[in-house]
Amino acid sequence: MPAAEGDIYLVTFNGTIHGQRTILTHHYALTTLGLAATDTAVREAILDAVKDGGPFEIEDKLGACLSSDWSCQSIWCQKVFPTRLRRGEEAGIEVGDLPPVEITQLTAAVTLVTDKAGRDQQSTKKIGPIPTTVDYVSNGILTPAMVTLLDAVGAAMSANLSILDDTIIMKPCIFHGPPPFDPIYDVLTDWRVGREARILGRRGVGKGV
C-alpha cells in the first residue's frame, strides 16, 4: 500500500527487567513525502532509524539511562492511521548501561510537549528502572548526571526522522485519534525532564503514552 502524508506510525520499545515487561510507545506522523514509497518501506526505515546503531539511536539513548538489569527485547513499528496494518519488528540489542537496581519500579519522567497549551499537548514517557545510587538519585531527586542522560532521550524523541535518503520526514507527535478528532495529531517540538524519581506500580513501569 502506498504511504501518504498524514499517515501515523506507532513505535514500541519492549524491554524486560527481572522477568517484568517494560513498554515505551511513541507516535510519528508522515509530514513530507518527497518520493513515492510503500508503507512497508516507511515502517522498516523508521525501525532502522531508532534502533541501536541507527542515525537517531533512541534504543541506545534509553539504555544509557537504565539499569544493567534491563534489556531491550524488540522494537515494533506499525502504521495505525488511516489504516491499521501489520507491524514490523526489529530485535533489540541494547542492555542498560547503569548499575543494577534494588527497586525495579523506580522511574524518571521525560515529558514531550507541543507548541500548544493544554494537558492533551503533553506526552509523558516513564523511563525506568533507574539506579538508586547517589550518582543518579539523591533523596528522591535526580542528579545532574541523570538529568543529562534523560535530556538525550528527550532530544532524540522530539527530533524529526529523515528517512529513505532524506526523501521522507516523520515528525514525532501526539496522536489524538481519528476523526472526529480535529486535528488528529499535534507535532511534538520540545521536552522537559522531571527532577523527581518516582516509584510506580508494576503495571505502569516503563509505559509511555
What does this structure look like?
- This protein has 209 residues and is α+β, with helices and mostly antiparallel strands.
- The chain is built from three helices and 13 strands; from the N terminus they run ββααββββββαβββββ.
- It has one domain (8-204).
- It has helices at 39-50, 58-63, 144-157; strands spanning 8-17, 20-33, 70-81, 88-91, 106-113, 122-127, 137-138, 141-142, 161-163, 168-175, 185-187, 190-193, 198-199.
- The strands form three sheets. Strands 1, 2, 3, 4, 9, 10 and 11 form a seven-stranded antiparallel β-sheet that branches. Strands 5, 6, 12 and 13 form a four-stranded antiparallel β-sheet that branches. Strands 7-8 form a two-stranded antiparallel sheet.
- The protein starts with 7 loop residues before the first strand and ends in a 10-residue tail after the last strand.
